[in-house]
Amino acid sequence: MKKQWGLILAASLISGVSHGATPDEVRIAYSGGSQVIMLAKADGSLDKAFGTKVNWVQFASGADALNYFASNAIDIANFGSSPATAGLVRKLPIEIVGVSGVIASYERLIGKEGIKDLRDLEGKRVGYPPNSTSQYALDAAIKVHHLDRSKITLLPLRPAEMVAAWQRGDIDAGYVWAPFAQQLEAAGGHQVFATKELQKDGYLIYNNYAVRKAFAEQYPQIVSAFLRVHQQKVDEFRQHPDQAAATVAKEVGAPVTTAANTLSGLEYPSIQEQATAAWLGKGNDADASGIGQALSKTASFLAETGEVRKRDIPANWDAAINPRFLQQAAHAAP
Predict the structure, then answer these.
(1) Whole-prediction pTM value?
(2) Could you give the domains of the chain?
(3) What pLDDT digit, counting tens, does each position of 85-127 carry?
(4) Which stretches of the chain are assigned E, i.e. beta strand?
(5) 263 phi/psi in degrees, rounded to 5
């Protein structure tokens, strides 16, 4: 009996009785832009929910977030679906656990005078951040509207570089997210196209929450708590949008109008909705879920552009999408 108890105890430890443990800190990567999760950074609600310190790690692009994951420097990240897909295809040990916001007008094409619609891009120089959801949206817009890609000079530029190129007169248009989109508009630009317009053509482009698999396995209660706090902050923004915008603006160092524009430029499916087939699914058929289909479409785009190899695209997305934390968070939500 004593031997049997020892075996049971060992098995329990291996299977994760330690799941109730709390890490010394949780490292969360964010872009520095006006996202609802910044409300949690401002009031420390994640630290309280976790019962431990949160170390906020800022990055400039989704590609940077992937590098942080690869070097085991972060645990959770909020970044775009396109770089997340690239990371999954490259077999980075991460999984998608939630959607932080569907990109609507948050990312958009800004043009100078003379560019009234997408057709006017032919013969022009257009900047875009490489390996980003903006690049994916720009490419999709070119395809959907049957533009002659060979007649458009596409220039890969990081967001800050794009603003500088615009001011020098090196580009005629730029597809980028806030607050850089507002900077282009303030410098004489106007909105030509927004990512939301691609939804009717079957493109789901979003920001997601990705987590290191090892971290999620060891601390599932942390991941569920993170998603619950996300929903609380979405509700907070909806109930008091002006107050939320002011808080986020102060946190990220942006004008309140910029924060308000950015926060309202995203659509927020609830954690209950995200745990359905339309989003992350219920864990039994990842490929058929909305996010699974979006991953397949995005992966094909990345293969066409040479960002990933077609042969590396996984046969299915079962290991890439994990809705169980959403289910736990939704069950525990008031």
Answers:
(1) 0.88
(2) 25-102+205-332 (3.40.190.10), 107-201 (3.40.190.10)
(3) 999 999 999 999 999 999 999 999 999 999 999 999 999 999 9
(4) 25-30, 53-58, 76-80, 94-103, 107-111, 125-128, 153-156, 173-177, 190-194, 206-212, 266-267
(5) -60, -40
